[in-house]
Specification:
Blueprint: H1 10-35, H2 44-102
Helix pairs in contact: 1-2
Length: 103
């Protein structure tokens, strides 16, 4: 019975890779926003509005990247904890099965 209680972590591993890609995309977006400039495209008001937009987006993408990192850490810990519970359950079931055979 215990041998049927294995956890397939393939989907979680794919999820971690997707999260890492998303975080890297936001980090790249932050760099692009920081390195780009819009001054001289139009009026001073337009330049100011563009600068404010860049600041807001830079802050927002930084916050999203940080939250993705936290989510990755939390889900990785959950995966590790679940694996530990799975191993402990498997051992307990094997022990119970052995006791049942002895009777």
């Amino acid at each position: 019975m215990a041998e049927r209680l294995k956890v397939d972590s393939t989907e979680l591993d794919k999820f971690f890779k997707d999260l890492t890609k998303a975080k890297n995309s936001f980090v790249a977006l932050q760099k692009t926003l920081r390195d780009s400039g819009v001054n001289g495209l139009g009026t001073d008001d337009l330049d100011d509005a563009c600068d404010q937009f860049q600041e807001d987006w830079h802050y927002g993408t930084k916050q999203i990247a940080e939250q993705i990192e936290k989510l990755t850490e939390i889900t990785q810990q959950a995966k590790n904890d679940f694996h530990q519970v799975d191993v402990a359950l498997e051992k307990a079931l094997e022990k119970a099965e052995q006791k049942g055979r002895k009777k």
